[in-house]
Amino acid sequence: MTADALLTVRGLVAGYGAAPVLHAVDLTVAPGTIVAVVGANGAGKTTLLRTLSGMLRPSDGQVTLAGEDLRGVAVEQLVRRGMAHVPEGRGVVAELTVDENLRLGGLWRRDRADATRALDEVYQLFPPLANRRRHLGHQLSGGERQMLALGRALVGRPRLLLLDEPSLGLAPRVVAQIMALLRRLRDDTGLTVLLVEQNVRSALRIADQGVVMALGRVVTTAPAARLRDDAELRHAYLGF
Ligand code: ATP
Q1: Do residues 61 and 13 lie in contact, with contact meaning Cβ atoms separated by under 8 Å?
Q2: pTM score of the predicted model
Q3: First and final C-alpha spacing in the chain
Q4: 21 in contact with ligand 1, CB cutoff 6 A
Q5: Which of 18, 32, 90, 194 is most buried by its number of CB atoms within 10 A?
Q6: Going by C-beta distance under 8 Å and a sequence separation of 6 or more, which residues neighbour residue 57?
Q7: Ligand 1 close to Cβ of residue 158 (< 6 A)
Q8: pLDDT tens digit sequence for 191-225
Q9: CA dist 85 → 2, 194, 212, 226 (Å)
Q10: Ligand 1, atom 2: nearest CA belongs to which residue?
């Protein structure tokens, strides 16, 4: 399993100051799968994604993407190697148009023709964005901003999408649309997703694997369906 993994994390230790938030985190993400990271507030889920995307430097541990060691690799190099991070709060540039925001996602790509193709594909994937190309970021609804943040990541044709709380602040109908889209991207294009979600039920419904975190540690890793059905575990760590 590990030999074929797209992402392998071993013994990852990271935090914001002297005291670590992540304590020797281990996880594996197989290509073409959705792995949901779930757990209570403060468990370290966002810190994990920030560390993987290079925003935070780990003090120990190893991360490999398709077998390549990522230690010391700069953020822009991580993006070139296929890591795309959609942070909590989404990071859409409010003063730029939808089109400009999306183009930012492909700026670094040398293959201009394919970057344009990827942009067209994103517009097909998200018709509301196609209808609002010239609208500014701040004129969009919460759901449209989430689509834009996702779309911008997809324009870079990532191998691994790190998604932090895509459902935050969205109506249930929009959450369902976003989750269905992630599942479709996995099934149709083989996209690999590491998904952090407070909305545990929605996340485990579309995920292949679930990783439960508590106090900066991984306490359980199991097929998502098993986590959904394990009442004891749900009560202990997931609050439902
Ligand atoms: P949430 O869903 O509430 O964001 P989480 O599982 O994503 O929870 P993190 O945001 O990773 O958890 O937070 C883990 C711990 O790190 C918490 O104790 C939090 O207070 C601390 N922390 C988070 N961000 C910072 C920061 N910028 N500086 C210092 N400590 C931080």
Answers
A1: yes
A2: 0.93
A3: 31
A4: yes
A5: 194
A6: 14, 51
A7: no
A8: 999 999 988 989 999 999 999 999 999 999 999 99
A9: 22, 10, 20, 27
A10: 41
Return the ligand 1 atom nearest residue 15 CA: 16
Give the containing element (helix H, strand E) for 99.
Answer: helix 98-104
Is the distance from the beta carbon of residue 89 to the nearest atom of ligand 1 less than 6 Å? Answer: no
Contacts of 126 (CB under 8 A, 6+ apart): 147, 148, 150, 151
Q: Which atom of ligand 1 is nearest to the CA of 17?
A: 29
- Dihedral in degrees, nearest 10, Cα atoms 60, 164, 113, 109: -30
122 lines ligand 1 (CB under 6 A): no
Q: What domains, with CATH codes, occur in the chain?
A: 1-82+160-240 (3.40.50.300), 95-157 (no CATH)
Q: Whose CA is nearest to atom 19 of ligand 1?
A: 42
Residue nearest to atom 10 of ligand 1 (CA): 46
